[in-house]
Amino acid sequence: MEDLVVMKFGGSCLKDEKSFSQIQYIVKKYREASKIIIVASALKGITDKLIDFYKKSCKEEPKCDYIIDDIFNIHKNVINQILINEESEFKKAFEFLKKEIGELKQIGGVIKLIRPSIEIQDIIISYGEKLSAFILSQYLKSKNYKAEYISSDEILLTDDNFGRALPLLKETEIMVTDRIIPLLQSELIEIICVTGFYGSTKDKKITTFGRGGSDLTAAILAYCLRNNYNLKVIYWKNVKGFLNADPRIAEKTALLKRISYKEAKELAFFGSKVLHPLCLDVNEKGNIPSEIKFFNEPDSDEFTTITKEIVRDDKIIRAITSIYKLSMVTVESDTMVPLSGTASKIFSLLGNNNVNIVFISQSSSENNITFGIEFEDSMKVSFLLRNSDFFGKKWFKIKIDNDISLVAVIGAGVLHTSGIAGRVFTSLGDSNINIKAIAQGSSELNFTAIIDRKNCDKAINVLYNEFITQK
């Protein structure tokens, strides 16, 4: 089978003439041996501006078109830098920009006439990727590459969970292979530029995947083409890859050059923002190797490779990570033992209101359930529980601690090595750090401790020294 590389470029890789030139260098290097699909994020900061435009339009704030004018000027400046001497591609890019900006202003103008919704927000924020991917395709054409632009809503089918859509992989695979494979086989096409971050429902409504969703787009495309090509996915980032701790906190860190998908998913969930967690799941399902590479040093051998294989070495723990700002909810009552379905009622209530559960911890006496939520959901959860017919009764006590952090030790060693929990307790205890709750995920590749937020940075370094530097 022919080689195919799916590359994802983030917004920080799409900002000026120098960065576009770097993309050309990377494309040239890989094009010699394989076909290429490029997935592009929006230019840096554009998605935030589009969200701001949506919110201000909903409130009927006067003159919020200035936000769209700002977006127009940012893209215009990029076009002027990279295509000023290319008349044909400059004209096409500029006309596309004007058309899309005109549509955005029209949508903003009618939001106040219709019911504002997350569906409308998804439509608006999808324009960032439309603009960046089309401009990139024209840039590559100007450099004599046979590039094709595709909007991802034409090939990626999702459910209707707007704002956090999930791909319908079976249906999407049919659409991708029908549309993409003929292009890859054509001598008229070398590179396909696809918009990241969004897809569409069966009834053609735009949906977005949430923050980091362009990573997921790249994974979906690779998954759909896995049976037709020798594939790998490269995520070009402003970091070299996964580190074994947050460099802003830990006194020492090191690059994880090889890591399994299971371990990478744990890192992504517990605080690391390097990759979208779901993209790792999709790549694992397709058994597709992935690489995270530093955009500014494309020839460096310092990068992370992610595969299904779990590396077995003398490092019991591969990484120490954290979620700095969480809230911890405890629902307590002596009546929880005879009342069946208490946990189910809690999680159904929160799930129906789009509240994410970060961890769960239950005492052996079964008279309380403790779970973690995102800090921003604290007031919502308090209201939901205290005003529910079931939990609002006097026999339930609801406590919410808004000053906690989560620290986790991650690695295959957690699965097959005894004494991990004891070492966590001892090392933190010796440093006067109190553990308020513990949890372990179903993957058994992590052990999690909940502590006071003021001790988070200290705990990271204590655990790093205990398990990684082993001082």
Structure description:
By secondary structure, the chain is α/β, with parallel strands linked by helices. 43% of the residues are buried. It has an 8-stranded mixed sheet with strand order 3-4-2-1-7-9-10-8, with helices on both faces. Strands 12-13-11-14-16-15 form a 6-stranded antiparallel sheet. The chain has a two-stranded antiparallel sheet with strand order 5-6. It is globular. Helices cover 41% and strands 21% of the residues.
Helix and strand layout, with pairings?
Elements: E1 3-9, H1 17-31, E2 35-40, H2 46-58, H3 65-83, H4 87-110, H5 118-125, H6 127-142, E3 147-150, H7 169-185, E4 191-195, E5 198-200, E6 206-208, H8 213-225, E7 230-237, E8 258-260, H9 261-269, H10 277-285, E9 290-294, E10 304-307, E11 319-332, H11 342-351, E12 357-362, E13 368-374, H12 378-386, E14 397-410, H13 413-416, H14 420-430, E15 435-439, E16 446-452, H15 456-469
